[in-house]
Amino acid sequence: xxxxxxxxxxxxxxxxxxxxxxxxxxxxxxxxxxxxxxxxxxxxxxxxxxxxxxxxxxxxxxxxxxxxxxxxxxxxxxxxxxxxxxxxxxxxxxxxxxxxxxxxxxxxxxxxxxxxxxxxxxxxxxxxxxxxxxxxxxxxxxxxxxxxxxxxxxxxxxxxxxxxxxxxxxxxxxxxxxxxxxxxxxxxxxxxxxxxxxxxxxxxxxxxxxxxxxxxxxxxxxxxxxxxxxxxxxxxxxxxxxxxxxxxxxxxxxxxxxxxxxxxxxxxxxxxxxxxxxxxxxxxxxxxxxxxxxxxxxxxx
Length: 301
What we know:
Layout: H1 2-14, E1 27-30, E2 47-49, E3 61-63, E4 69-73, E5 82-86, H2 97-108, E6 113-118, H3 131-146, H4 148-151, E7 158-163, H5 164-174, E8 197-201, E9 228-233, H6 241-253, E10 258-263, H7 279-293
Parallel strand pairs: 5-6, 5-7, 7-8, 8-9, 9-10
Antiparallel strand pairs: 1-4, 2-3, 4-6
Helix pairs in contact: 3-5
């Protein structure tokens, strides 16, 4: 009986807890004081669509975002680190609950100042779907770093996490930090937009078009690319395992510390929500160990 109780407690501890009700942010910051750079318009007002009972994966969908912003989830006891999360959604919508606020609360519970980026959307009909979201991502990193002291964050302890399409965005934004993707507008843009650590979960379409052997030409991995964590499933039809594998090999060749987890099953879009496949129940634990190995866990204030 005691063994059964212990096993139940262990499973409860290791399984990510996902609330039915989305968490509410503690603070919201607009990225830009005026109009964001570039010519972007949405086909209608900002809209949040609730999941349908028949949805195989019940997720909220946010779209028509014209005022990009950071939504913060603040811990009671801060560890000095921060993370910005870029949700997926295929550039048509933002899955900003199951690939946003749910992970933000996971980080918050471990002492991180966590922020979900609601970037401009939809961009799926544009020639460069990633362009405006990547601009917003670079601006978000610079904005948070410029306000690091206000949030009790060390300015060199700011990470970036991307799910699916958000993984593509995060990867492009990070590997183009030398040449910012938009003209500098103010003092915030004088602050570095390079994250200090990068995490990509089933990053979507990071392979070059019609290729299984090359990454997208917009991804420029170099020795200054930050330490990177990658995870995805081998049976993912949307984000092919070749992409994460090539990214890992390119990072390794450049001398960048990198860690790769490819699970036999898991599909695409699982986020933190456990199911009967392998990946969802395991990758958060691997990420936690990776963060610990990098000295990014442990409360400081």
